[in-house]
Amino acid sequence: MFLTLSFDAAMAAIAMIASSILIWSSDAITGPYSISSAVLSTCFFVLAVVLGFTIRGVQKQVWRHMGWPDAVMIVQAVGLSGLFYLPVMLLLNGRLVAPWATFLVASLLWTILLFAGRMIALSRSTHMPLQIFNPVSRSGQPVLLVGDAENCVTVLRRLQSSPQGSKVRVLGVVEMRGADPGRAIRGVPIMGSVEELGNVIDVLRVRYGQTPWLAVTGTARSREGMLQVLDIASTHGAEIMALGSDEAAQILEPVRPADLLARPERHLDIEPVRQIIEKANVLVTGGGGTIGAELSRQVAALNPTNLTILDASELNLYGIDMSLGAFAPTVDVTSRLGDVRDVARLTDVFQRAQPDLVIHAAALKHVPLMEHNLCEAVLTNVGGAVNSARAAVAVGARRFVFISTDKAVDPDNVMGATKRLAEIAVSRIAADSRMSASMVRFGNVLGSSGSVVPLFERQIAAGGPVTLTDPGVTRYFMTVEEASSLVLQASALQALEGAADLFVLDMGEPIRILHLAETMIRLKGLVPGEDIQIVTTGLRDGEKMHEALTYGHEQVSPTYVDGVNRVASLNGHGELFDKQLAALLEAASRRDRSETLRLLGVLVPEYGANRAVKARRHSA
Predict the structure, then answer these.
(1) pLDDT mean over 339-357
(2) pLDDT at 383 over 90
(3) Has residue 568 got a pLDDT over 50?
(4) What architecture does CATH give domain 134-255?
(5) What is the SS3 assignment for 156?
(6) How far are the Cα atoms of 49, 133, 290 from residue 30, in angstroms, in the given order?
(7) More confident residue, 70 or 536
(8) What are the pLDDT digits (tens) for 215-264?
């Protein structure tokens, strides 16, 4: 700050001396040049400048982050300095030669020098010195930027140069590292470090009459930075929003729980996936669901010859069809309405599509609902997978990908048992054909239909309470984007014809549902247990306290794809399995619940054993 003020004072002195020389050298002034007059006027002018600029706070500006508010501040400080110098001119009028002319010329030269120095510094930093003249919004949602200075500058620059910036009013910046305290960037004051965030929120609430949103950017958007900000924000009633530094993120958006996942950065090579999808025919069953739709978008981005989407929901199918029309208008997308349980419809769709790659994402996945809809779960999750795999073999598909779940491991519920049975059935179909198959297991997908995240969001918006089955329950979580990208990576790992591989995605550490609920409450600037109550309801039918990704007897080995592991699973199933599977599907078709349940327990022995244990526990 001292250097800034020294520069401004030095420029004032140079401008006054140059002005005196110019005025004295003009024809309008007669007589010898008075050094004492020039020194006197320069000293008082510099004194007025130091006083005016200090009062206005110009010395706090960070030149490389100059903006329109800084330019306005400089003009105001120049005017204030002139007011301070005016009495000097009146009192010393007899000792100064042409004081008004000298002052006006000096002010003009001085202002030019001030802006020239700052624009040179701004040009070296951004290569866009004229952005100093972009105005900033004085209305909109009050916001406090939290992040490192460089990212905050980028955000401010784009907000101030975009019409979208009028929707927010940036009140200040909290620098994560505590850099440049007391200074300003683009006219926005740096109000402290993250350790002072709570006090800054309170000050702004009093000053402006409402609590500002916290817009996190840069290092503050990392998981560690977000958690640090979250702990402070929730106790001070501030809601956290995300404001990225990329072109598309100019408007505040709610921070997603996914941003707080402890997930290592993936370094994925897209080329192997591109090689199997580009110029190929791809078919996605259940392509309108949360996972299926994201898979369809990622497939479309790799330029397949044709992408066929099959879904039983007209609404979901319409949604993904419209989405892909905007996202990938050059890709040939065919949307087919149909149920994977309908063999005739599947045969027709597959024959028309002639897929090289089939991704089977169609499934019924809501655990408690499937406990009470056993036959439907069997017909869709098992029968649908079998029908799709057989249809793929019939048309000569080279690869088949089956989306499984962590609930297929030591299943304690119908949904998990049907998915485990489908894993085995698909592997047997592939073994008897030239088609390679891969089963991909992973845990919960954040934000998918039926997941806890949308439920918690609705409950928080309604003022609570947030309902948990048990405070000790843990689950594996992954974003739909990451899960889908890893599924496609796993599809590229298939190599041998007739091979059936089981892959499991690296889900990181399981997350306590209680912690997830508390985090989502804090993201809204509320305090768990005070502003929003958390209520325990007890485990529902078929739910477990903890899930696992593999059986104890399964051998797990890493692949070259970061985040995808291969599982060596011992199946050992033969013709008896095939007969029992056919009997199961027949019983489910007759809606014979007791026989369906019995056969499901036979085909998935661990599920049968778990059912027997629960039955003995209830009878005791």
Answers:
(1) 97
(2) yes
(3) yes
(4) 3-Layer(aba) Sandwich (3.40)
(5) helix
(6) 29, 41, 87
(7) 536
(8) 887 766 677 777 788 888 878 888 887 765 444 444 667 777 777 765 66
Are 169 and 139 in contact, with CB atoms under 8 Å apart? Answer: yes
In sequence order, the β-bridge partners of residue 504 are 441, 565
Quick check: 359 pLDDT over 80? Answer: yes
Cα dihedral: 354, 355, 361, 364 (round 10): 20
Catalytic residue among 60, 365, 407, 524: 407
Query: Going along 239-332, which residue ranges are E strands?
Result: 240-242, 253-254, 281-285, 306-311
CA angle, 295 as apex, 291 and 300 as ends, to 5°? 150
Q: So where are the chain's domains?
A: 2-132, 134-255, 271-443+477-506+552-609
Minimal CA–CA distance to 41: which of 80, 77, 94? Answer: 94
Distance CA 8, CA 116 (A): 11
Q: How many CA atoms lie within 13 A of 17 on its CB side?
A: 11
Rounded mean pLDDT, 136-157 = 72
Q: Do residues 566 and 555 make contact, with C-beta atoms less than 8 angstroms apart?
A: no
Token pair recorded at residue 66 = 């100059």
Say whether 271-443+477-506+552-609 and 134-255 share the same fold: yes
Helix (H) or strand (E) holding 400: strand 399-403
What CATH number belongs to 271-443+477-506+552-609? 3.40.50.720
| Maximum distance among all Cα pairs of the chain, rounded to whole angstroms | 121
- Omega before residue 69 within 30° of 0, cis: no
Amino acid residing at 130: L
- Is residue 289 scored above 60 in pLDDT? yes
Could you confirm whether 365 is annotated as catalytic?
Answer: no
Q: State the residue for tokens 């004032």.
A: 12
| pLDDT tens-digit map of 150-204 | 777 777 777 666 656 567 778 788 887 766 555 667 667 787 788 888 888 877 7
Question: Environment class of residue 547 by beta-carbon count within 10 Å: exposed (0-12), middle (13-18) or buried (19+)?
Answer: buried
User: Between helices 2-24 and 35-56, what is the axis angle to 10°?
Assistant: 150
Tokens 């309908």 found at: 342
* pTM for the whole structure: 0.72
